[in-house]
Each structure stands twice: as C-alpha cells, then as structure tokens.
C-alpha cells in the first residue's frame, strides 16, 4: 500500500516522474515545511549532494520563487542556499528563473548568490523549467500522507547502529513519519560557539535519529528509542505532531507543545506517550530538554484529562530536574483526579 502511494506521487510533481525513493520524501518534507530553517537544511543537502533527477530541485525552485523575502536574516539565508542548490546542479533549466529573481529582489545578499549560481550553470542551451502548473499544496499533502503511513517496528529500528549512513537507514526502514532540523552548538577554535544545523527523522512507536553531514554523507550520530506505549489509536492526522512531541530536539518539542496546546490535543493514546516521555526524562540535567519537558507538563494540563493528575504528582515528588518538578506541580493542580489513571511503564 505504501509503495502504491509512492507511485501515485509520481504524477504530482508538475507532471514529472518522481523517483520512488524515501530520500525524496525526507527532503521533500523539509522543502514544503513552513519553517525556513527546514527549507535551508534541504537546500544545503541539495547543494552538497545534487540529485541526478530534477524533482526535488524543481520543488526547491518553486519554494525559492514563491517565498517572500522578509526582513529576516534566517529567511534571506534560506533563499541564498536555495539559489546555491540550483546553481550546484549546473542545470540550464533554472537559469531563466534565477535571472528573473535576480532582477526582482532587493536583497544584495541574494543577488550575490544568484550571480554565483548563474556562473555555476554557465551559458549552455536548454529548455527552461516551467512551474506554472506546479501544485505545491497537493505535493505537501501527499508527502505528509506518505510519512503518516510509514510503519517501523522497534526491533527493525534497533538494527541500525550509530555510524550508519542516511542512505542505509532509509534502505532498511523506508521513509520516516516526520523530519526536521535540530541545532547543536559546538565550540570551534578562533570561531567560538558555532550553531550546527543537522537532520532529525522520527519513526512513530520506534524512535528518532539524528544525523550530521560528514564529508557529504549524512551519518547517524544519535538514536533514541521510544517508549513502549502503543499509538495504534492515535488519529493519523496527529501522528506527525506526536512524533515531534517525543523528539530529541528540544526546540522542536517546545514548538510542538505550543501547537498541541493550541489545537487542544486530547487523544489519550497520544497523551499517554507524552506522560511516559516526561517520566523517563524527569531527572535530565540538560537545560533545554528540561524546559521542553516542562512544556509537555503544560500539554497534559491543557487536555483537562484527570487521568494524568497522579503521574504529574508523582513526577513533582520524584523529579530530579527542578523545573520539571515545578511545572508538574502547577499542571496537576489544573486537573481533577479521575480513574483509570495513567500508569508509567
């Protein structure tokens, strides 16, 4: 069924054939994300590892010409990377598109990178890409559906080891349920603290993986298994959100917690996963992840479900992280105890 859905996706990329590869799903999801940082991560991948087929590049081109340049350094940097990715492809089909954008943009930085991209492409002859009928909303919907339908067991997940390439992981497990970028700060001599943007993929009911780009190869650096609670009953529309709430990227957890609160997440199977996650990390020393767990306490409180009163009280009494304990206490006060109460695994 999943393979059939992948084949159906072939017709969506502006009538072009899409290679049936989980990698296209991973970086396609990053490109259609509303987060400019996700777009930039995909652009960096396309720049360092130019694909042989044009589908992802055409999607990158669509994002480039349809993104409004805000007074925002992150957004400007993202568009510059998208232009670099098209240039690195050396495909003549993108020259007219880049020339048009170069004439319209007021960004000096973007103009400079477009100029460099045009040099990479050169003066060869060829048909220009036509994105007039490109249906990005349809592409995003189908990519999201593909990700939501991915299924991997924890046993399969545990067969992959740190050091494996992204290519090997996707070959064994297929496309993940959700993708995103995570940022780590690393000290570099003469440069100080440098923010490094890397790739995170998550398999619901199995775990999440973090990759960094090493000599143009995405290498698995960390793998985190998920709790044993089954999420079979989670609404398919909430699968991606649940996976993000259980991510090892604390920035993503905080962002997703706000979304869960705003959308009134109330599915018990999903909230059970959240409660288990807080319990497992109640003693964590990392400040960022401790703050993320505090946000997850607020997610449980916002559900209004008294099923989580007792576990929040237990976390308050036993948590080694003071911030988690503080928010567990304030969150449990917003709930009236009810049976059956959630039991930690």
Explained architecture:
It comes from Shewanella nanhaiensis. This is HEAT repeat domain-containing protein. With 345 residues, the protein is an alpha+beta fold. The chain has 3 domains: 2-138; 151-226, Beta-lactamase Inhibitory Protein, Chain:B, domain 1, CATH 3.30.1450; 232-345, no CATH class. The chain has helices at 2-8, 22-32, 36-48, 55-66, 73-89, 95-104, 108-121, 136-148, 154-157, 166-173, 239-245, 250-262, 268-280, 287-303, 309-318, 322-332; strands spanning 178-188, 192-203, 207-214, 217-225. The protein has a 4-stranded antiparallel β-sheet with strand order 1-2-3-4. A hairpin with a 2-residue loop joins strand 3 and strand 4 (217-225). Helix 4 runs antiparallel to helix 5 and helix 12 runs parallel beside helix 14 (287-303). The longest helix has 17 residues, at 73-89. The chain is elongated and about 70 Å long.
Discrete helix count = 16
| Oligomeric organization of the protein chains | single chain
Question: Number of folding domains?
Answer: 3
Please estimate the helix content. Answer: 40-55%
Q: What shape does the CA trace take?
A: elongated
Low-confidence stretches: 1-19
Got a strand count?
4
* Largest sheet: number of strands, sense, barrel closure: 4 strands, antiparallel
Find the structural class using helix and strand composition. alpha+beta
């Amino acid at each position: 069924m999943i393979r059939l859905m992948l084949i159906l996706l072939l017709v969506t990329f502006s009538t072009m054939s899409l290679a049936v590869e989980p990698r296209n799903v991973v970086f396609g999801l990053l490109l259609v994300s509303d987060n400019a940082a996700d777009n930039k991560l995909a652009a960096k991948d396309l720049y360092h590892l130019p694909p042989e087929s044009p589908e992802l590049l055409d999607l990158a081109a669509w994002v480039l010409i349809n993104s409004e340049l805000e007074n925002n350094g992150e957004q400007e940097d993202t568009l510059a990377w998208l232009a670099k990715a098209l240039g690195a492809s050396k495909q003549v089909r993108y020259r007219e598109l880049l020339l048009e954008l170069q004439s319209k943009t007021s960004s000096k930085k973007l103009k400079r990178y477009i100029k460099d991209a045009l040099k990479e492409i050169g003066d060869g002859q060829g048909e220009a890409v036509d994105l007039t009928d490109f249906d990005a909303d349809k592409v995003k919907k189908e990519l999201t559906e593909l990700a939501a339908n991915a299924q991997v067991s924890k046993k399969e997940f545990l067969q992959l080891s740190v050091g494996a390439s992204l290519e090997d992981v996707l070959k064994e497990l297929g496309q993940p349920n959700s993708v995103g970028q995570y940022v780590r700060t690393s000290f570099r001599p003469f440069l100080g603290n440098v923010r490094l943007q890397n790739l995170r993929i998550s398999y619901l009911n199995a775990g999440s993986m973090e990759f960094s780009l090493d000599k143009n190869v995405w290498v698995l650096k960390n793998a985190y298994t998920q709790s044993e609670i089954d999420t079979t009953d989670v609404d398919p529309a909430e699968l991606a959100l649940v996976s993000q709430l259980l991510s090892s990227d604390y920035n993503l957890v905080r962002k997703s917690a706000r979304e869960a609160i705003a959308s009134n997440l109330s599915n018990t199977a999903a909230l059970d996963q959240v409660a288990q996650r807080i319990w497992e990390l109640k003693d964590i020393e990392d400040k960022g992840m401790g703050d993320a767990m505090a946000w997850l306490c607020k997610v449980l409180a916002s559900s209004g479900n008294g099923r989580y009163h007792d576990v929040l009280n237990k976390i308050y009494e036993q948590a080694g992280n003071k911030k988690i304990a503080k928010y567990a206490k304030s969150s449990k006060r917003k709930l009236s105890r009810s049976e059956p109460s959630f039991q930690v695994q």
